[in-house]
Amino acid sequence: MSRTLELPRLRPIARLPALAGAGLGADEPAARRAPGDVGHVPVLANELLDVVEASGIELPGAVAIDCTFGDGGHARLLAERLGAAGTLIAIDRDPLAEQRFEAFAQEVACSVRFIRAGYAEALELLAGEGLRAGLAYFDLGMSSMQLDTRERGFSYAYEAPLDMRMDPAQSLTAREIVQSWDERRLVQVLREFGEERHARPIARAIVSRRASAPIETTSELVDVISSAIPTPVRFAGGHPAKRSFQALRIAVNDELGQLDRALPLAWEVLGVGGMLAGITFHSLEDRRLKRFLAQRARGCVCPPELPVCVCGREAEARLLTRRSIVPSASELERNPRSSSARLRAASKLAEAKGRAR
Questions:
Q1: Please, which residues have CB within 8 angstroms of residue 117's CB and are 6 or more apart in sequence?
Q2: Does pLDDT of 11 surpass 60?
Q3: 343 three-state secondary structure
Q4: Lowest mean pLDDT among 1-5, 253-257, 313-317
Q5: pLDDT at 129 over 60
Q6: Contact between 318 and 346 (Cβ < 8 Å)
């Protein structure tokens, strides 16, 4: 039976300089970074540490789960505070992340473990092992190393094969979606995952173009997308391919399905007093995280006309961020990639009824 964590207040944490981010929602290449940008310093780093402090977690000696290791930016900051008695478990499905982890493991004092898998599958494994952690966090979206590795095909700013796989071993690629999915299905993907209002003409243009010649590269796809969007609005909301590339990436990697499965599993592996946090980069992720945390922070659900509670529902969570936390002005100046980032977090007050305490 898992023990309940008893977590005293954390001593103050020295603040870090606000620099460029790792988790990304935009496709801005490294070559266009602002002068002085050192790269790979995580988005909302100070803010995450502040929320950890507010949660009351004593980091030295704790178990922390980095559900989206990437280049290890957040993990490195947390590992320094976990100390030799602490443990950091890193999860990522990208082999590049595993390579970065090997170097990371040699540089930190805490115990470390890497699980190469989607975070839903990895968290299911940890839950099955009966693990209890003091902290679990997600830095969603793409990592800098994925975006800046041109051959991965994540960015509309580079000429590259249409790939977009976070796990290169999986079979589904962006090219397969563009080349083989029917128009109705393409419209659905662009609308649901990209919130693209021109989804229908874009899907129609893709189907028309591929009938005469295959769409093989990011540049070819950008040309098709641009041709389908009316000229007056083509650059009104940023790059015309931004939403379509986001939609394809989400579909290729089942990002929202992974998140829907992972959030309850991450909550399950937390001990009482532990904290769950997420940094999101678009509204589809943010709504899911917000709704998940709000549902667990909700207590009585009886109709307001009842004089006393009869449902017996008690809150499982205390919200640590009533509103999402956004990057500071200095971080935005140094790193435009962080502009859409939002941080939300909650502390676990109790196990759900029916689970062992």
A1: 91, 93, 125
A2: no
A3: strand
A4: 1-5
A5: yes
A6: yes
What global pTM score does this model have?
A: 0.84
66: Cβ–Cβ under 8 A, 6 or more apart, which residues?
72, 74, 75, 78, 88, 89, 90, 91, 137, 139
Q: What are the Cα distances from residue 47, in Å, to 25, 238, 280?
A: 18, 27, 13
Which residues partner with 276 through β-bridges? Answer: 136, 346
Q: Are 294 and 155 in contact (CB under 8 A)?
A: no
Interstrand relation of 63-66 and 111-116 (parallel, antiparallel or unpaired):
unpaired
Best CA proximity match to 241, nearest among 268, 261, 222, 265: 222
149: left (phi over 0), alpha (psi -120 to 50) or beta: beta
Domains of the chain and CATH, by start: 30-146+255-348 (3.40.50.150), 168-253 (1.10.150.170)
pLDDT digits (tens, 9 = 90+) for 87-116: 999 999 999 999 999 999 999 999 999 999
